[in-house]
Amino acid sequence: MKNKTLPRGLRNCNPGNIRQSKTRYLGEVQPSRDSAFKEFQSIDYGYRAMFVLLEHYHKACGLKSIRQIISRYAPPSENNTQAYINQVAAACFRSADEQIDIANREEMVLIVSTMSRIENGVAANVEDVLRGWNLYQRCRP
Fold first, then answer.
1. Are 89 and 71 within 8 A, CB to CB?
2. What is the pTM of this model?
3. d(Cα 70, Cα 24) in Å, to the nearest integer?
């Protein structure tokens, strides 16, 4: 049984708190025990899903900057989106409106680590994020 004291996203091995949708990700538990959020077999798969989702936003939706991506990922109806954008941009040492390099491992690991911290209230384990990146690179959608 998963530790009930962990934040919901970590209990679900879904550090990005990706909501339920028709999209299916590698390593996704079906059916999820959480009616609102996806659940993954391991934290590695949860981080991989974040990288896949951000790549989709970047390539298919044309969202190229931190501001554009976070505005879609964490809409104002549910979040303090501007604070979220500011924290991610600061972690990457860049303007929120600069285009990100979706293929740059260091940049993407910083972005996803910061998003995980915001979503869960605790610092991401960078080793977990890197394993998610490596899984994402090996198992591209």
1. no
2. 0.94
3. 21
Question: CA-CA distance, 129 to 76, in Å (whole number)?
Answer: 26
What pLDDT digit, counting tens, does each position of 41-68 carry? 999 999 999 999 999 999 999 999 999 9
Closest CA relative to residue 38, chosen from 21, 63, 55 = 21
For 92-130, the pLDDT digits (tens) are 999 999 999 999 999 999 999 999 999 999 999 999 999
Read out DSSP for the chain? ---TTS-HHHHTT-TT-PBP-S---TTB-SS-SSSSB--BSSHHHHHHHHHHHHHHHHHTS---BHHHHHHHHS-TTTS-HHHHHHHHHHHTTS-TTSBP-TT-HHHHHHHHHHHHHHHHSS---HHHHHHHHHHHHHS--
